[in-house]
Write a structure and sequence with these properties.
The chain is mostly helical and 114 residues long. The chain has one domain (2-112). It is 82% helix and 0% strand. It is built from six helices and no strands. Helix 5 packs antiparallel against helix 6 (96-112). The relative contact order is 0.15.
């Protein structure tokens, strides 16, 4: 069960980040209060914050169940998910550096969980 809570927290955080990115792509963000409030209350950004907030609540349960030295590094798996999703949703390029980074992150998390 604790691994499901960790996974839920991570998935919610990933969805939140993707929504935030989508929101700032369609909503003009500049350094003035009106633009900032407009961006914050745009549907994608608002939902992104909501998903991220729910993820934080799940994260509290994760912190209760796992040692911090295991839980926090496990969040780096979200970096892998974001890279993969960004390739498909935002047409971001996949480079050999990104592939190498993904492999290293995954290997590091595997080592920590053993």
């Amino acid at each position: 069960m604790k691994y499901l809570i960790l996974l839920a927290s991570m998935l919610l955080a990933v969805v939140g980040q993707v929504l935030l990115k989508k929101g700032v792509l369609v909503s003009p963000l500049s350094v003035n209060l009106g633009a900032i409030l407009g961006t914050i209350f745009s549907p994608s950004v608002f939902l992104g914050f909501l998903f991220y907030g729910i993820s934080s609540i799940f994260w509290l349960f994760v912190l209760q169940k796992f040692p911090l030295s295991i839980a926090y590094p496990a969040l780096s798996l979200t970096y892998i998910a974001i890279v993969i999703i960004s390739i498909f949703l935002f047409n971001e390029p996949l480079s050999t550096n990104k592939i190498s980074g993904i492999i290293l992150i995954f290997a590091g998390v595997l080592i920590l969980f053993r």
